[in-house]
Fold:
Amino acid sequence: MINNDVLRSIRYMLDLSDQKLIDITQLADPNFALDKTTIGAYLKKEGEAGFVECDSAVLAHFLDGLIFFRRGKDDSRPARAVETHVSNNVVLKKLRVAFELQDSDMHDIFASTGFPIGKPELSAFFRQRDHKNYRLCGDQLLRNFLKGLTLRVRGTG
Structure:
C-alpha cells in the first residue's frame, strides 16, 4: 500500500486537519521539517495535479508521533529512534500500539470488514522478519484493517 493511502486513511479516521498532521509528525522529532503545502501534496490522489509521493521517513515520523499523540510520551525513558523503513507490517504494528489494541480487538476489526483471520496468522505479522513464521502483511489486509479501524474509531460500525 502506498504511504499516501495510509496517511489519508488515518487523517480521515481521526478527522485531522493539515496542521494537526504536522503537529503529530513533529511529536516524534520536533526538528522534522514539514509544511502545509507538502502535506497537501501528500493528501492528493494519485494522478491529481500536485500529487507528491509520501516517503517512508515522513510516514515513520507520523506513525511514531501518532503513538505519542494517542498514548502520551514517557519523558523518563529515552525516545526510540524513528524506524525509517516502513512496511505494511510496521504500519500494522504501530497502529496496534497507538490504539492500544489487543489480539481480540484486532480479530474484531478484521471480522467487521468481512476479512476474518486466525490467531496464528495475526501473530505472524508481528514476528521478527527473520523468524520462520514471519509473514508479510499484504495491501488488501492492511486496507481492510484500516477500514475496520475507521469503523471502530468513528463509531459507524
